[in-house]
């Protein structure tokens, strides 16, 4: 039984707490949140203890592992604190919005990298994971073109946008990780940003983007993002190779098809957002983490994967701002290869 | 070049005339219709001659083959007349609504059966034909269960219904032929009729039916019919065997898919009716007939296939009326095996 | 918190125990199985007590409700025993293979019918349930034709077949309940059995069937069954009405599509069998039962639904054996209307 | 009846000749080809005259319109020659590989632009055309993101590649026209080329590309090209807007779906290449041209559309070579707006 503390009792912390509670080999023992009585409320649901004191998490003898689901600015200090206290860590993405801070984190946990996992949940989505596994088995030959469509159902609040680090670091980063997961080292990034929703006119951020990545292998990945999608959370991927293609169609809540006088074969809208769309992915992600903690094997994705995705997000941000393509040093995204 | 006369300048005759005109190895030379100036109008479109005199068709030296697209009651006399005049014949289904009359026809053309083809157009639909060919190649093993959905877009007029011979002889007969085409000899028929549309309350006919056929092979076919379908002309088929299944999905006018706030992946409505849905089938059917005439090979389906489908339609009509299953003599539907 | 005992530690009991363990408002307190140490093993997984003594279940003060997942022959005595002991009961289908025994059960629990639920899990499948809800909302008008395809992946063992009560009582009964769920009162049953797999040549049962049901409403349901399906567990349904159709497509494990030189858009095989295919249905079924116990509302489907499905299965068995259609007395399947 | 001469009896000329022959309001009267007896052979199929002398085409009194399907280097002189002779012209794409030559052509036909149509056949594909029409009707709001996948089944010969003008001018030009057709004026082009097939290692061309276009409207188009595709000719498009999305799925030869032990719902491979895939488009394109000639209305796409697509192809070629994005003068692609 892996005994787990969840740091952060917000939206994502609540997901992780419930996922831990359902896992047969994991136990939620502690919830931390400094604000109000959020920690107490979440802990009560699952019969766990609550604390406002972050040191209490590090010092808890009955905590084997920590899930960091707090706001991004405190990720690094909590990852370092937990690792130093001998805990295994699953840290939500992004590790930090500032690459220098991530590098500090990497230095600080040196020698313990194999105790830290970064929460790129999409790698664990059953449909994406199946595509990845079949690609690895050679079913389509080496991937030549990867196309990712990733659209949120509706824009976040202006407040969220202002502290998000921008579209590429906040939203595209998931897709950038997927590109690395499928293609390995990325050597060039080009991005075009769009201001689609009038609400973004007064924000210093874009709400649409097309990002093109060139891999060292010669493969090209295209990522199409939008902060809105009338049909819901649009999450798709196609890997194309010389022997064929594998496509991850966006799954729905059910498989009902409707026909009427005006249409045939209509599915329902897409799943609402990431909590619904990636419910199975969060379970599988935790399962991987718990297995790693139990067996002592290094989990994946690593903090280097988190760093590499941020390098790509920074490059995409710069490319969109300057209109230039950004060449990456060959080791920029490959210190920890998929 | 096969020189063709079309008898009947109504809806189906018009289709055949245009199909002949487009065929590179066929030439429309004569159109017959006794009513008004229908023959003249249709002939003018294609630069052919017109006549009101049926004997002129039989006597025309420049006519190699005749397509009988006249009203059902005159089919038999025209088939016999044309065959006796040495013409090859493609006769629209049904040969006649009265089995005794069909039998008279069979006797009358004895020795010339291989000059007469019956127009079960669905055998020539590219999608159904591909399923049939792949079944023959053994892709799913012997067919065990065949499911046919066949729904018209909207009911015909009461006048049409009254002289149609009833749903099973008028509409289901196509599906009965398809069942024979896939399963061979049929030994038992059971049918349930439905009165769905209030317009049929005062008609001596049903407008919905489920017909179950048992084949000598042990396979079972299910035919689901309706005289209405909100989405258009619904024409589908599934062949199931021990190694898998082959399904004929209803093709649409285009392959556009629409997604919105309330649905995703919606196709347009089905094609309107048989002229649109089976346009390619009519072309392929004529191609088969023209090839048969040119090469002297016997065309298929034969008049025996036309007779066998009528035997099944009669049995289905009786079963729906009495509530009894109808066993067929083993030779009833197999004198001309698919 | 509803405290639950599971009777039967076999395949379905194991499913129910795990489902209870995951339910936030239910607690597994006791597992019963008379054979070997099956009860002990299953109980240990979930930290529950085990017993070989059925009376211990009835007498347990800390048991609010019982799930009967034992072999069919002991269902009735256990339902009655539990109800008399004041427990709510969720009984697996079928209640019994013998209608007389079911009637005895109905009499024995008179006055407590609202404490007994029968486990027709398919009503709770998210896709089927959505079709049902949308039909109820009038989206396609009154259902006129219902088509159910229900095929197992592979035949059960000869031993299982011999005590199963036959295909219609063992397998079709689920589809018969679905027909009632969608169409209400059924007035006529006609069934054709098939012996498809050579393994069934020496068994007194069929392994394929097409069953046609006429509803009091005039609607017709068609059920197509097979004990084998190369692609896995094939579970589909189409409801057709004057305004359109709602189809329940068989969901897959993922939504990957594969294209290669020989095919495009290929999904993976169907889910293996009912444990995978109906995992969500079992959870929703338990959720409904737990809610009923907590709120005191009568659960559905009821024992009368269980009885009615058996009446239809008996009729289908007789129809397949005799070749006759079976008319049902108008109250045969409607004492407890959906 | 529009009397038509076809210049060029190669692959595309043969398609146009057959399309003319089938059109009820057009007549093929003359075929020109300078090489061997190609003109004679094609003319004979359709009962037309043949000539090796291009002036004979211009001088023919019984020729109303000319279809230019000759090799690209002679397009301009033939367009100009035919226009000066008073003929209407349908010219295959590209008008020329050299923009200066296209400009000369524009000057030379000044005042007769409305007599010249350029053969961007995809605008007339029924599926793409339906998406375009529904976009125009506002079904998804203004297009924000357009994604085009366009992959050939297999690379052309090295000889073809060497004189093709390169991937962007030869292949992508169709997609660039589609981008303009949907988005109007394009202001920025960025392209990444790929050398995927080893056969291209010694050729001065790429065989894969991802091209990103920014429209004046703010919309972004992404074009994904490959010279090979295991599944056949892959031609798809998705238009995304604030109210939803319209997708053009690649249609197949039939709508058969196959299920087996290893897969479900598999369609056949894509159609082989453009002759099959765009058969209906060529018919509709000719229909538009014939209507324009008969009514005197200007056809579309115009020579300015042909010029604008070449401007974009040149820009994409330069971008792929230099790694720089190419900004276009605001009038570069809009002299003739869609």
Automatic annotation (TrEMBL), chains A, B, C, D:
TM region(s), chain numbering: none
Membership in a protein family: Belongs to the Gfo/Idh/MocA family.
Pfam families attached to this UniProt entry: GFO_IDH_MocA, GFO_IDH_MocA_C3
Organism: Georgenia satyanarayanai
MF-aspect GO terms: nucleotide binding; oxidoreductase activity
UniProt keyword list: NAD, Oxidoreductase
Domain Gfo/Idh/MocA-like oxidoreductase N-terminal span(s) in chain numbering: 2-120
Protein name, as recorded: Myo-inositol 2-dehydrogenase
Domain GFO/IDH/MocA-like oxidoreductase: from-to ranges: 128-246
Signal peptide (residue range): none
